[in-house]
């Protein structure tokens, strides 16, 4: 992966700008500061390696060199999108899930709120962050880390992980995958909040109809129930609780 290859491969995608780094702290951090410096809508930051990739609440997302797809999209939301930031995590996850199904015949699922699983193992994580100007949202950043080759999968994780390579026969091409995800992202972005997006997100939820636990950061179980679906605002609906919001909570299936 290099900047020339990316620019050529993505020339038919209406990007606001493209920055490529061989090695960087976090693509979300670069996209956040690019937004503050006047970056255009739908600009992209891509890195071959992240030294300080982030998950939610400051947790680490590992991106070793030459092994993963790590990028962040800088979005300048319109007034409709501003009111629906809670949907952007699902939008990003759906773009990846749809791509994996369409081009790789993989049955990927969205583990609420922000992970994409294949066969119950974590393939990717989505991290949405925002820049504010007063009380107005100036930028939405949608960061995505996808494990592509086997060496992208960290050891000793609490939740099991996998890579694309372990699930397909051919060698995956990171740039081609990126192109496919961006096309899908653009399509879903144009139907934000429409019933279609909500339905697709819900349909692709991992562990739907199954008993799960919602854990707090310290591991304490704060809710238990069967997943019924998600609400229009992206919160999770259990049979025991109408809406669990993103916050710092973790979802775990209960093996029965
Ligand atoms: P959980 O996975 O426990 O439900 P989460 O979805 O909130 O938590 P995130 O904050 O999105 O997790 O991602 C960070 C976590 O993902 C890390 O704490 C680590 O356990 C795990 N992780 C880090 N790098 C990778 C990777 N490349 N592939 C899979 N999992 C990773």
The overall pLDDT average reads 94
Number of domains: 2
Quickly name the level 1 CATH class of the largest domain: Alpha Beta
Q: Helix segment count?
A: 6
CATH topology annotation of the largest domain: BirA Bifunctional Protein, domain 2
What general outline do the C-alpha atoms trace? globular
Computed over alpha carbons, the radius of gyration is 17 Å
Low-confidence blocks of residues: none
Provide the structure class. alpha+beta
Largest sheet: 7 strands, mixed
* Strands side by side in the biggest sheet: 1-2-3-7-6-5-4
Describe this structure in words.
The chain contains six helices and twelve strands. It has 256 residues and is an alpha+beta fold. It has two domains: 201 residues, BirA Bifunctional Protein, domain 2 (2-Layer Sandwich); 43 residues, no CATH class. Strand 8 and strand 9 form a beta hairpin. Helix 4 packs across helix 5. The longest helix has 17 residues. The termini are far apart. The structure holds adenosine-5'-triphosphate.
Give the arrangement of secondary structure elements:
Elements: H1 3-9, E1 18-21, H2 27-36, E2 43-47, E3 68-75, H3 79-82, H4 88-104, E4 108-111, E5 115-118, E6 121-133, E7 136-147, H5 174-189, H6 195-203, E8 211-215, E9 221-230, E10 236-238, E11 241-244, E12 250-253
Parallel strand pairs: 1-2
Antiparallel strand pairs: 2-3, 3-7, 4-5, 5-6, 6-7, 8-9, 8-12, 9-10, 10-11
Helix pairs in contact: 4-5
The structure holds adenosine-5'-triphosphate.
């Amino acid at each position: 992966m290099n900047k020339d290859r990316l620019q050529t491969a993505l020339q038919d995608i209406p990007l606001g700008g493209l920055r490529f780094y061989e090695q960087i702290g976090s693509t979300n951090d670069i996209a956040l500061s690019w937004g503050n410096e006047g970056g255009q809508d739908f600009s992209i930051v891509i890195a071959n390696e992240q030294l300080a990739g982030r998950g939610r609440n400051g947790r680490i997302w590992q991106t070793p060199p030459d092994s993963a797809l790590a990028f962040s999209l800088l979005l300048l939301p319109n007034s409709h999108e501003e009111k629906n930031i809670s949907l952007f995590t699902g939008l990003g996850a759906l773009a990846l899930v749809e791509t994996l199904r369409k081009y790789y015949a993989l049955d990927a699922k969205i583990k609420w709120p922000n992970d994409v699983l294949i066969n119950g193992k974590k393939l990717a994580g989505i991290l949405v962050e925002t820049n504010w100007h007063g009380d107005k949202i100036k930028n939405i950043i949608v960061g995505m880390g996808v494990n592509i080759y086997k060496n992208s999968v960290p050891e000793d994780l609490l939740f099991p992980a996998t890579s694309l390579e372990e699930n397909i026969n051919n060698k995956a091409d990171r740039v081609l995958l990126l192109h496919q995800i961006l096309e899908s992202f653009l399509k879903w972005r144009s139907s934000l909040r429409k019933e279609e997006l909500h339905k697709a997100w819900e349909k692709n939820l991992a562990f739907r109809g199954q008993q799960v636990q919602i854990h707090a950061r310290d591991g304490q179980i704060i809710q238990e129930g069967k997943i019924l679906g998600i609400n229009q605002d992206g919160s999770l609906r259990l049979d025991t609780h109408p809406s669990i919001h993103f916050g710092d909570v973790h979802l775990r299936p209960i093996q029965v």
